[in-house]
Design brief:
By secondary structure, the protein is mainly α. 78% of the residues lie in helices and 0% in strands.
């Protein structure tokens, strides 16, 4: 997950920017969207694989931010005046909500809960948190899609009600909801900043790498160096190449070819695909409560994207 989600803005009752005319032959857009969806789902699978291998989240973060930080460093150097003009609180919200702090929170959550729960709670509750944050500054108009938001809340309540006695899961859920809140704050900060997808990716990647390197100098990534080649290929292709470099560009391309509405709707299928990937890889089969909660949250997200009359 590395780009602003149009569904988050719609659910908060916020207007989306005008969408370019859709292509008459949208197959390339669908291909880009399918590729983006696979990356987003694989992001949660990679976090879970790192947790099961007892890999510290900070070590996995090195795989995520080192390639992207080096690739995007020239963008930061060339456009440093643009970044310097941003209010400090704004760029801090962008980096914290989609950069290293968010990554560490999500990675810690995956140490306590399965892929299906994390892939559902983090992206699924973003519209809710976006609406709540926006309500503080814009008033109740930001809650205009309250029936859809209540559906999301009911899904979260279902997960919590049936799993509240399981300490590990409860801790994971708390971290997932915190990560979702951070991403929601990033969503609004990025919208108000006016940064392009490339500029946002550069700021997030380079600053996150700068924050990560001092810690790793004091704590060598021994677990990362001990990983087998297969695990390196998994994390490197997903985190370093996919999430760090390609998903932002492929999602922006999909929006250009298909429109924001279609792209956001298909993006809501991330938890389903992530669960399908986790089943053969980790043997994680969602129970009835998880499926019910996932269904309610997905229904709320899709409902929130319906055009208002």
């Amino acid at each position: 997950m590395s780009s602003i989600a149009p569904s988050s803005l719609q659910a908060a009752g916020l207007a989306l920017p005008a969408t370019p005319a859709r292509s008459a032959t949208p197959w390339a857009g669908w291909a880009a969207l399918a590729f983006t969806l696979l990356i987003w789902a694989s992001f949660f699978v990679s976090l879970r694989a790192g947790a099961r291998a007892a890999l510290a989240p900070a070590e996995l973060a090195l795989v995520r931010f080192l390639p992207a930080g080096l690739v995007f460093l020239p963008v930061v150097i060339l456009r440093w005046r643009r970044f310097a003009s941003l209010p400090v609180l704004q760029w801090m919200s962008i980096v914290a909500g989609a950069g290293l702090p968010y990554f560490l929170i999500a990675g810690a959550g995956m140490r306590h809960a399965p892929v299906a729960d994390g892939a559902t709670l983090i992206p699924g509750t973003i519209p809710l948190f976006v609406a709540l944050i926006a309500a503080f500054s814009q008033g109740r108009a930001a809650l205009s899609r309250w029936p859809a938001l209540l559906t999301v809340v009911s899904g979260v309540a279902t997960l919590l009600a049936f799993h509240h006695g399981e300490g590990q899961l409860a801790q994971g859920y708390g971290l997932f909801l915190l990560g979702s809140l951070m991403w929601a704050n990033y969503t609004l900060a990025l919208r108000h900043s006016g940064l392009s997808p490339i500029e946002a990716a550069a700021l997030i990647s380079v600053v996150s790498l700068a924050l990560l390197l001092p810690w790793l100098m004091m704590h060598p990534p021994l677990g990362l160096m001990a990983l087998p080649a297969r695990a390196w290929a998994l994390h490197g292709s997903i985190q370093g190449l996919g999430v760090g470099l390609l998903s932002t560009l492929s999602y922006a391309f999909a929006i250009q070819r298909l429109g924001a509405q279609r792209a956001a709707t298909v993006g809501a299928l991330t938890p389903v695909l992530a669960s399908c990937l986790a089943w053969p890889m980790f043997g994680e089969v969602p129970d009835g409560a998880t499926l019910a909660g996932m269904g309610l949250i997905l229904a709320g997200v899709l409902w929130s994207q319906r055009p208002q009359r």
